[in-house]
């Protein structure tokens, strides 16, 4: 019986070659976009958190501030939920950093260290452009803080572009998934219309409804497997070509996971797409399609 199911499935595909081709192509694009959506959600969140953690605001302290007041200033900075860490930079550390970055030692010219003490403030992933603006205004109004130095505009501008790109991918994913389902639905309808006379005969001789439905569902499964194989081949080839050009890219540990995702989506979307139409099938004889 299983042999009959697969035989009928392959016959259905070869009889509706053009419809099958478009169904496979669109299903492949849908799988690729869905996988890209999940990857983008995962990666964009990781990138967003990583970049937010890299935002630094330097608070330069007035030379007149005493040690006890430094503790109060640090406590006030730490009151914000978005602040991840507050690190004190002494005048000596500031001097060491200056020498390391510039290669110049001003101590040979100046008797005293003119560099101020400071607090280096880092933020967690709760921070956004509105919140950081309010926090910086609060820092500027804090007694003892002489200057606030920051540069986060570029970071948030890039994050806004990432979010815009994410929305565009969501829209395309939904669009291509709908198109894929429609083509699978149309392919099922075409296959059934071409074989309706055969199905009517099978119904007359007492064939079960599953005998008609299962080959169609297997057709969707075959479409899904072929589409998944196409997506996996394109992804794997593209990755190794890109790795040849940019050796720093290291994604080997995720190749099998991504390809498994393609297979899962193919096995799920293929039968589901055709399954929508098979719900319409019944054991009722369609007399309009019986050939004399």
Describe this structure in words.
The chain is of the alpha+beta class and 292 residues long. The chain folds into two domains: 2-49 and 157-289, no CATH class; 56-151, Alpha-Beta Plaits, CATH 3.30.70.3040. The chain contains nine helices and four strands, in the order ααβαβαβαβαααα. It has helices spanning 2-15, 17-54, 67-77, 91-102, 129-140, 153-194, 196-204, 209-245, 252-278, and strands spanning 56-61, 83-89, 118-123, 145-150. Strands 2-3-1-4 form a four-stranded antiparallel beta sheet, with helices on both faces. Helix 2 crosses helix 8 (209-245) and helix 2 crosses helix 9. 23% of the residues are buried.
Features:
9 helices; 292 residues; Alpha-Beta Plaits; 4 strands; 2 domains; alpha+beta
Largest beta-sheet characterization: 4 strands, antiparallel
From the N-terminal CA to the C-terminal CA, the straight-line distance is 29 Å
Number of helical stretches of at least 4 residues? 9
Secondary-structure element order, N to C: HHEHEHEHEHHHH
Strand content: 5-15%
**What topology, given as strand order, has the largest sheet?**
2-3-1-4
Which runs of at least 5 residues are low in confidence (pLDDT < 50)?
A: none
Look at the helices and sheets and give the structural class.
Answer: alpha+beta
Give the total of domains: 2
Morphology: elongated
Evaluate the radius of gyration: 32 Å
Strand runs, count = 4
What share of residues is helical? Answer: 55-70%
Average pLDDT level:
78
């Amino acid at each position: 019986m299983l042999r009959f199911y697969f035989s009928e499935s392959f016959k259905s595909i070869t009889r509706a070659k053009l419809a099958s081709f478009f169904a496979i192509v669109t299903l492949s694009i849908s799988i690729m976009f869905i996988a890209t959506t999940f990857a983008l959600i995962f990666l964009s969140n990781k990138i967003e958190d990583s970049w937010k953690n890299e935002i630094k605001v330097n608070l330069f302290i007035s030379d007149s501030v005493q040690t006890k007041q430094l503790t109060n200033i640090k406590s006030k900075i730490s009151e914000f939920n978005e602040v991840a860490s507050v690190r004190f930079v002494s005048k000596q550390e500031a001097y060491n950093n200056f020498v390391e970055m510039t290669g110049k030692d001003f101590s040979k010219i100046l008797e005293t260290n003119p560099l101020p003490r400071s607090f280096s403030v880092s933020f967690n992933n709760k921070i956004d452009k509105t919140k950081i603006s309010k926090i910086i205004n609060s820092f500027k109004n804090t007694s003892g803080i002489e200057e606030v130095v920051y540069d986060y505009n570029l970071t948030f501008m890039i994050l806004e572009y990432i979010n815009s790109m994410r929305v565009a991918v969501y829209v395309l994913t939904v669009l291509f998934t709908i198109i894929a389902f429609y083509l699978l639905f149309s392919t099922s309808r075409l296959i059934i219309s071409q074989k309706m006379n055969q199905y009517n005969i099978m119904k007359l001789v007492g064939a079960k409804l599953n005998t008609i439905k299962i080959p169609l569902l297997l057709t969707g499964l075959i479409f899904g497997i072929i589409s998944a194989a196409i997506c996996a081949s394109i992804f794997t080839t593209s990755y190794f070509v890109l790795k040849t050009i940019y050796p720093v890219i290291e994604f080997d540990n995720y190749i099998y996971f991504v390809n498994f995702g393609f297979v899962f989506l193919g096995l799920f979307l293929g039968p589901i797409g055709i399954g929508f139409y098979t719900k319409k099938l019944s054991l009722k004889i369609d007399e309009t399609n019986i050939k004399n």
